[in-house]
Amino acid sequence: MSEKCTRFLLVEDNNAHAKLVMLQLGDSQGNVVVDRVSDGSEALDYLHRRGKFADRARPDVVLLDLKLPKVDGHEVLRQLKSDEELRLIPVVVLTTSTADADRNKAYANYANSYITKPLDFEDFQNMMNSVKSYWASWNQSLG
Questions:
Q1: Residue 35 falls within a domain, yes or no?
Q2: Contact call for residues 119 and 18 (beta carbons, < 8 A)
Q3: Opening angle at CA 5, ends 108 and 68, nearest 5
Q4: What is the extent of the structural domain holding 24?
Q5: CATH number at residue 29
Q6: How remote is the C-alpha of 53 from its chain's centroid?
Q7: Is residue 143 part of a domain?
């Protein structure tokens, strides 16, 4: 029996941050797939499977930065959680913002988790390994 594959959608405009996240989440067994978009408009197209994303499977988990071009992360979160077809997809806000206002707004829009990116590389690796372990191994996702 093969293990379940967990699909993450990473919504991140910073290429360096995206590479670090993808490096930490990826695995050689193919049990984790990470797709990345770099702005909020692309995120909404991906989630709604529009345009160049029409053939993409819906993600099991969205990793969402807040400070995004075109459509900011708060608006992506609001639209995702307002859509009956999408609202059950877990959203982990993954941001540099430690502002109470950002955290409160994210939870008010039904974010499933709010994680601040650590500045220390080792701490970042440990955090991403925990995120991967929880969402790809322990969490019971929709069937």
A1: yes
A2: no
A3: 40
A4: 6-132
A5: 3.40.50.2300
A6: 16
A7: no
Which residue is associated with the tokens 């978009």? Answer: 37
Give the confidence band of 26 by pLDDT, cuts at 50, 70, 90: confident
pLDDT at 130 over 70: yes
Average pLDDT over residues 45-67: 95
Query: 90: which residues sit within 8 A by CB, 6+ positions away?
Result: 60, 61, 62, 112, 113, 135, 139, 141
CB 57 within 8 A of CB 92: no
Across the range 98-120, mean pLDDT stands at: 95
Contact by Cβ (8 Å): 5, 33: yes
The pLDDT of residue 55: 95
Query: Would you state the pLDDT for residue 133?
Result: 87
> What is the pTM for the complete model shown?
0.92
Tell which phi-psi region holds residue 67, choosing left (phi > 0), alpha (psi between -120 and 50) or beta: beta
| 31 half-sphere exposure, CB direction, 13 A CA radius | 11
Q: Is residue 139 part of a domain?
A: no
d(CA 120, CA 115): 14
User: Does the pLDDT of residue 2 top 60, yes or no?
Assistant: no
